[in-house]
Design goal:
Elements lengths: L5 E6 L5 H10 L12 E3 L5 E6 L4 H7 L4 E5 H7 L4 E5 L5 E8 L14 E4 L2 H10 L5 E4 L7 H4 L4 E6 L3 H5 L2 E10 L1 E5 L5 H21 L1 E9 L3 H7 L7 E4 L5 E9 L3 H10 L3 E7 L6
Parallel strand pairs: 1-3, 1-4, 7-8, 7-9
Antiparallel strand pairs: 2-3, 4-11, 5-11, 6-9, 6-10, 12-14, 12-15, 13-14
The structure holds phosphoribosyl ATP and zinc ion (ZN).
The site of phosphoribosyl ATP has 21 residues, from helix 3, strand 9 and helix 6.
């Protein structure tokens, strides 16, 4: 295997595809993406992108056919492959829940005893039932799980839920959340030193993007006689940059502030006499 390049598998098409592509672009990794292609080579980073079905990604990563992968935690847990979880990516969020026909009473986990539950995620369900000492029958099916109760195949289902509208449309009610899932960045357990270095470079870029998202660049004019008050109002990275202005008695103050305190800071600055306040997004930020 070529050691000077890393391979990452992302979903070929489906719910994780767009966010996975955006994730790589946010990290500054450029590549052309045509949905019919199976692989793409980044033009500016030592990364090759392989497009796969999400179900295949954990195994490819475990075997080292690819070094990295982006996959839903639900799929990773179900496939039970030995990989390293590097990061939680904050997209592809969903939960895995047990649902019952909407009129069926449910007071707690023990009510699942003796039920037949249809699912395509039998490992996750089995672990949950065993942990809670519930004796239910798992009926494994590969798709369209939500119609199993109306066909008389099972009394309940265990499946992915997002808005809940699929359950509602099938006369089902979510009664028990088992797992909260999101997309994960996973890696082969043993990378070579060269591969690990490329991974660290990728993570550094991702961090720089995330930090930038959480901050704003702020620029304002301050009357010199109230500068102390203005500086005190800015919880900046270090001390703000102060530059003289052509106009006597004024200076320009530059700093970076966290997104979550941004409005409070703005109000305090205004009250302290700041004028011409400009706020700009940041592209990248290294702390
Ligand atoms: O072709 P491939 O095998 O790669 O894709 P796939 O069809 O197996 O997966 P895909 O693209 O549907 O989902 C990929 C991943 O997205 C899942 O493994 C989850 O990690 C995540 N995800 C997030 C979801 C949902 N949200 C989701 N809503 N996966 C599936 N759904 C289903 C849900 O089961 C329901 O049937 O979408 C339907 C709509 O959900 P409601 O609750 O909004 O009605
Ligand atoms: Zn799949």
């Amino acid at each position: 295997m070529n050691e000077s390049i890393l391979r990452i598998a992302i979903q070929k098409s489906g719910r994780l595809f767009e966010d996975s592509v955006r994730f790589l672009h946010d990290a500054g990794v450029d590549f052309g993406s045509s949905p019919n292609r199976l692989r793409a080579q980044s033009s500016n980073f030592p990364l090759e992108i392989i497009f796969l079905r999400d179900d295949d990604i954990p195994e490819y990563v475990e075997e080292g056919v690819v070094h990295l992968g982006i996959v839903g935690e639900n799929v990773l847990l179900e496939k039970h492959k030995t990989v390293r979880t590097i990061d939680r990516l904050g997209f592809g969020k969903c939960r895995m829940s047990i649902a019952l026909p909407k009129n069926r009473a449910y007071a707690g986990i023990t009510d699942l005893n003796n039920l037949r539950i249809a699912t395509s995620y039998s490992r996750i369900l089995r672990q949950f039932l065993e942990k809670n000492k519930v004796k239910a029958e798992i009926h494994e099916i590969s798709g369209a799980v939500e119609i199993a109760p109306s066909l008389g195949l099972a009394e309940g289902i265990f499946d992915i839920v997002s808005t809940g509208s699929t359950l509602l449309a099938n006369g089902l009610r979510e009664v028990q959340t088992v797992l909260e899932s999101e997309a994960l960045l996973i890696a082969h357990p043993r990378l070579t030193t060269a591969q690990e270095e490329i991974l660290q470079r990728l993570l550094f870029r991702i961090d720089a993007h995330r930090n930038a998202q959480k901050h704003r660049y702020i620029l304002l004019n301050a009357p010199k006689d109230r500068l102390d008050e203005i500086i005190a109002a800015i919880p900046g990275m270090k001390s703000p940059t102060i530059l003289p202005l052509a106009v006597e008695g004024w200076c320009s103050v530059h700093s970076v502030i966290a997104e979550d305190v941004f409005w409070d800071v703005l109000e305090r600055l205004k009250a302290a006499g700041a004028e011409g306040i400009l706020v700009a997004p940041l592209e990248r930020m290294v702390l």
